[in-house]
Specification:
- This protein has 86 residues and is mostly helical.
- Helices cover 67% and strands 0% of the residues.
- The longest helix has 31 residues, at 40-70.
- The protein is flat and about 65 Å long.
- The two termini are 43 Å apart.
- The model has no long low-confidence stretch (mean pLDDT 87).
Length: 86
């Protein structure tokens, strides 16, 4: 089993502290906005924003998948060697 170095421990502690602080901040913001009501325009904007964000994310993932399958990325990778058939 590999031992964890001091630098890795410091990194894990820092990342854990950031996670905890982010959770505390999110909880405080959630509680501060509890009295605010959203009308129908807000719900429409939220729904459209979520839909188009998902659409753009799926579209970019599809483009990346098709680009890697078609061979367009082979030129951009200098470390990939073409398979030679002798």
């Amino acid at each position: 089993m590999k031992k964890i170095s001091a630098g890795q421990i410091v990194l894990l502690v820092a990342l854990g502290a950031m996670l905890i602080l982010t959770g505390v901040w999110a909880f405080s913001v959630w509680g501060a906005s509890s009295g605010v009501e959203m009308d129908k325009h807000g719900w429409i904007a939220l729904g459209l924003g979520a839909f188009f964000s998902l659409l753009v994310g799926c579209g970019l993932m599809a483009l990346m998948f098709f680009s890697s399958r078609s061979g367009h990325d082979d030129i951009a990778d200098p470390f990939r060697r073409p398979d030679r058939e002798d």
